[in-house]
Structure formats: structure tokens, C-alpha cells
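Forwarding these from the shared drive since the link keeps breaking.
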Amino acid sequence: MSSSKRQCDGTNYITSTGGLEYLMLWSLVRAATVSETAYDEPKESLNELLLELQKGDASTASWKQSITEGCHCNARSMKDNQNEWHVDNQGLLRRNGAAYVPNDPAVRQEIIQINHDDPYGGHFGKAKTVEIVQRKYYWPTMGRDIKDYVRTCEVCQKMKTPRHRPYGELQSLPIPKQPWESVSMDMITGLPPSADADSKAYDAILVIVDRFTKMAKYFPVRKTIGVVDMAQLFHDRIVYAFGTPASIVTDRGSIFTS
């Protein structure tokens, strides 16, 4: 693979992007994984992409140095000895035979999608999907990332039998009497990361809609945005411009209820 990383000026190099360490072109990720399946070994194109990604990753460099010196990487990894981590003939860092995937959301999500959505994979639940993915790949937050993906999988939500008690009856919301008296808030997540002119990376969109006029405001955010930052954004962009709404309608996600 000749180039697989991008800089903000459009050239194919890697760049630090406001908290998301890497901004990998989604089209290049798709091209490298187009022939991947859940039960086959990773193709050469994907191994080359991971190798390029590891070259610019600080954690990978630290582990490789620790393997060379025959010592532990840090206090958090005391249980991981140099026998668990090794570098293969291609120079790819592996843990117990599984290729290490650096912190690139586009690559990690594509790997999860391949192994969960594969026709022979059957849209398994979290535990089975984790078992399949960790046969070939490793990253620290794999379980949490796969849980989030499976929970929001459209096919699983439509086709799998619900095991919860019936929901209560819906109640109509009161009709607001004037603009910006009542607003609704929701977040669009699972988007490929993108960076602005200042190299700040975003992977979600906060949508705020006035329920009276249906005017919508869209704000780029991180899906890990905190309560304080969310409140500050709402104050600066909504309250300052339109006043404090009498009511706010949300999906009762943790970011809105905490």
C-alpha cells in the first residue's frame, strides 16, 4: 500500500487531530478491507494498512522498544510479558498472535463491521463477535467498542426477537405556543472521524430542533463529549441566541440525564 494516511492539506500523511490520534481516509480503509471475511486470515492489503498505522503510533513504538529490551512496557501492563507481545516478519506488532490495531476509529469500526455483518457471521451478539474479532486483532477497548456496535446494529434491532416486557403506551407531546419554547436534542454517532481547519477531529453531530418551527441546528462534537462541554455548547449556541427553552425533549441518554 503506497499511501494510507492523510494530512489536513490533502496530502497522504498522518496528522494529530484533536484527541483522535489518527484520521485515516475511510475510502482507503474500505479498499484495504474489501475482500475481508470473518473467518479468513487478514489479506495482505489490510496487514499493510495496519503496518503503516503502527509506524505512526506511540504505543506501538513503546511496545517494540520494550520487546527489544526484554522488559515490560509500563506499570499498567505488568501482566503482559514479552512472550505475549512480538513483532512478526513483516514488522507488525502482535499480541498472542493477534495484530494490534492502533487508535483509529475508522479502521476499528470497519474490522468490527466485517466480522459482525459477514453473511457467515450471522450478526452474532457481543460475546461471539468479540471471540471472532480477537482471533485476528487486538486493541484495549475492543469489548466496549463491539458492545456499542452490536447494540446499535440496524439489522439486529429489526430482526432479533425482543426479550423485554412490552413498552407502555405513547403519550403525545404538548404543542409549543411559540418558537424555541420547546426543543428536542439528539446525537448522530458512528460517523467516520473528520477534522476542521484547526485539525480538531469530530465523530458525532449534535442535532437541536425547535419543535414549533422545526428549525434545526447541527453542531459537530465528539461522541465522548462531557456534560460540562455539552451544557456550555447549549448555552453559547442556543440559550444565547434564542433564550432558555421551557422544555427539552431527549432520548434520555446518559449525556442528557447526568
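-- next protein --
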Amino acid sequence: MKRTAAAAAVILAFLASDAGVAQARVAPLRLQGKFTMHGTVTTDDDVLGEQPGERLRRNWNFFPQCATGTCRRVLLKRRRGGRHILNLVMLARRPSGLYVGDGSFWVPLRCAGQVERHGGLATETITVRITKTQLVGATRFATAISATYTNPSRVNLTRCPGEIGHDGARYSGHLASPLPGPPTAGFTATPDLATPERTPRAPPAILRCTLRRRADRRSAPRAPGYTCMDSWIGASRAGNCGCRR
């Protein structure tokens, strides 16, 4: 009997683990947040200030272009080069799960003794692969990624003749910003903690005393130290006129 119960427990645990794996596989995948990226220059063809094998450290920020779940497009904001120039690339999700985007940026070139900020135009392609995720609620969030950067061409736009080089790098990174919290209920119930107001008590009924005849007032019993008034003062429970000192 004990062996049967143990076997049943093992089967249930196995089924539960399979269910968890299946849920993680079908859960939507989301790429968002700030990633700390560590890179290595893989290609360097006459690019000033770079050399093959050089180590890089960058921050990449991903902004999904949809409210929830897996987004078809994710905007990448990163800093490029030694001067950390802002570079924006819109990534599109491929059926394979990769995020790929093409962009371009200006390259400053020196011509005739002057530096032209828009002297060259470089094209770039960035590919991002999600390598690790964490399930939060019903959504898998990327916690680790790998990426490649390629610069296939740079065009010289100055009047000075000459070609300009190109470069490339590979990266790996981990999520540096906190994951979102699990979803909460779509409604709130706030208990009424206010002290209930007491129902005001009705003022006691005041019976107007009918003036008695002088003879009746004289014969009415009086408490020591009190004088009965001709006009009403109040009414006792017995309905008699009240007296005051």
C-alpha cells in the first residue's frame, strides 16, 4: 500500500512539473527593461579608436511597442562609441524568436582641415536573442540575452575622396532593472472603517403643564427648597409640573 501511494505521489509530481514546463513554453515572451551588456569587438576595418578583441561595456534599454505580452516591435535605445552617442534602432520579431533591426548613424569626418559632423553615413544591423527568461504571472520576461552588431558599410559624404572603414561586435547581457510584480486583482474592496454614526436620540417629550388653580398649587406637595412656578418648567415621568429652586 505504501509503495502504491509513493508511486502515485511521484506520478503527480511528474505531471505537475510537465504542466509547469508546458505553461512556461506557451506563455508570451516579453523583452523589456535595461540590460547591462558586455561586448567584444569582432571586426575593425580602419575605425578610429577601435581594435579587434577590445572589451566593451554598454547599457541597452528595450521599450516594447505594445502594452502586454509578446510585441512584434521593440525599440532599442543604446549609447554608441567612446562618446556614448544615443542610437535608436527599432527591432522586429522574427518567427524564429530573434529580434532584428536595421538602422543608421552619422560619422564625423575630417575634410580640408575641418570636422564635418555628418561627413559619413553608416548602416547597422542588430540581432538580439533571448537566452534566459523568468515567468511572472502568465508572461515570460527576458532576463539574459545575446546580441550581435554589424556595420556592413560606411559612406563618405564629404568632398574629400577616400573610403571609411566598418566594424562589428558581439554582446551578452543580463537584466539590470527589476522585473514587474505579479498581476493583481482587477478590483479593490476597501472596508468601511469609519465609526458608524450613532442615531440621535429623540429629545424627551416636554409636556406643557397646565396652570393649576392657586388652590391646587398651594395644596401640591413641594420638595424642600423648591418653589413651584406658575409657568411650566418641565415634566416628570409622572406628568407633574416641575419645580426649581
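The longest strand covers residues 114-136. The chain is about 15% helix and 45% strand.

- D.
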